[in-house]
Write a structure and sequence with these properties.
2 domains; 6 helices; mainly alpha
Length: about 100
Amino acid sequence: MKKKLGGKIKQIRRLHNLTQEQLSERILIEPASLCAIENGRAFPSLVTLERIAKALGVEPVRFFEFAEEKTIDEKKSSIVEKIDKLSDSQIEQLYDYLKIFIS
């Protein structure tokens, strides 16, 4: 959980083109502390999490929106579902593309 939370904070910080130093200055913590949070070595306090959210202009809940992790079988099913929605010409293009990378 720490790694996912920290990674999400880092992702949003980068979207705002801020360095760790710039964000840490805005939220009144040491850059090393922010680094530890972003790298999943520490949890931020609720106060710090709220400061980060405010500095980045997002709601704190945004830091907990993680991409769902799927099993291989779920990924395969998802691929097949997507392929079934393609037109014949799109399937031909996909096939040609895949031939290049999968032999």
